[in-house]
Amino acid sequence: MNYQAIIFDLDGVICSTDAYHYLAWKKIADKIGIDFDEKANNRLRGIGRMESLEILLSSHSGRFSEKDKKKYAEEKNLCYRAFLQKMSPADLSPEVRTTLDQIRSKGLKLAIGSSSKNAKLILQKLGLENYFDAVTDGNDIARSKPDPEVYLKASACLGIDPSRCLVIEDALSGLEAASAAKMDSAAIGDAAGNRQATYHLSRFSDLLLYL
């Protein structure tokens, strides 16, 4: 396939902020009185904040008003953003940076397609704020993955047909979003063995084998 653009998920692909997400959600869960561990946290990967909160609250017998939900979501985000302040360019893997440079040298466009509303902050902390040709994140969409909106908006921003875009994902919801957008996908990390992906990566640089 002659791809013209590569669209990357952010968390778990370009960098890893899973530990920060877990600690922030754990703080909220403890406050409400919900048992929450890293296994439960895996259910929240790749989806938006409010959707994640609904999953978290589903294990509690109580009822929560929309005002309460908004408060808990905001508290989680404030906690998470505090953790993100610790990030720096040193948190970006040399392999990731080198691979991105090699992809760019091939004349391909690069984009971010993330459900996170903190994508631009993370890119800034990593020193990548001006690196991608388009950044579409949770602030730009109404529906989180597995809805294809974030990837379709990224391809539109690039001006490239979805069929010429390759998505890089580490979560099932992201692979489903890519499929719904009629885009090929390469799975890495926890999603590497998923049959829904077009390609399966053992490491980030394996992406170069398919370009």
Automatic annotation (TrEMBL):
Cofactor descriptive note: Binds 2 magnesium ions per subunit.
Binding site for Mg(2+): 9, 11, 169-170
Annotated protein name in UniProt: Beta-phosphoglucomutase
Family note: Belongs to the HAD-like hydrolase superfamily. CbbY/CbbZ/Gph/YieH family.
Amino-acid positions noted as binding substrate in the UniProt annotation, renumbered to this chain: 9-11, 25, 44-49, 52, 76, 114-118, 145
GO MF assignments: beta-phosphoglucomutase activity; magnesium ion binding
Positions marked as site (Important for catalytic activity and assists the phosphoryl transfer reaction to Asp8 by balancing charge and orienting the reacting groups): 114, 145
Coiled-coil ranges from the UniProt annotation: none
Keywords: Carbohydrate metabolism, Isomerase, Magnesium, Metal-binding, Phosphoprotein
Cofactor(s) required for function per UniProt: Mg(2+)
NCBIfam families: bPGM, HAD-SF-IA-v3, PGMB-YQAB-SF
Keyword Metal-binding on entry: yes
Cross-referenced Gene3D superfamilies: HAD superfamily/HAD-like (3.40.50.1000), Putative phosphatase, domain 2 (1.10.150.240)
Broad enzyme group: isomerase
This enzyme's EC code(s): 5.4.2.6
Reactions catalysed: beta-D-glucose 1-phosphate = beta-D-glucose 6-phosphate
Example GO BP: carbohydrate metabolic process
Source superkingdom: Bacteria
Active site: 9 (nucleophile), 11 (proton donor/acceptor)
InterPro entries according to UniProt: B-phosphoglucomutase_hydrolase, Beta-PGM, Beta-PGM-like, HAD-like_sf, HAD-SF_hydro_IA, HAD_sf, PGP-like_dom2
